[in-house]
Amino acid sequence: MNTVELLNLIKKNINKNKAEIANNMVDGRISDFHTYQKNVGIAQGLDQSCEIIEDTIKKLNIGDE
Questions:
Q1: pLDDT band with cut points at 50, 70 and 90 for residue 65
Q2: What is d(CA 31, CA 34) in angstroms, rounded to the nearest whole number?
Q3: How many CA atoms lie within 13 A of 37 on its CB side?
Q4: How far is CA 36 from CA 14, 21, 39, 54, in A?
Q5: CB neighbour class for 56 (10 Å; exposed up to 12, middle 13-18, buried from 19)
Q6: Global pTM?
Q7: Looking at the 3D structure of the chain, how many domains does it have?
Q8: What is the pLDDT of residues 27-36, one digit of tens each?
Q9: Distance (Å, rounded) from C-alpha 12 to C-alpha 9?
């Protein structure tokens, strides 16, 4: 497994985690507003992580050219 494949696998797992958070919100499994805010913050952090991974993959691909 090369670096880009590894990064894509990490990104896939991050997106899976984010989807689980969203499903918990939609299903009403959030017990209070504080927990809701916390989960929104976590989801935003996961989005930022995916953006960083995408930028890293782009930089790796440019380096291969």
A1: low
A2: 8
A3: 3
A4: 19, 10, 5, 27
A5: middle
A6: 0.85
A7: 1
A8: 988 889 999 9
A9: 5
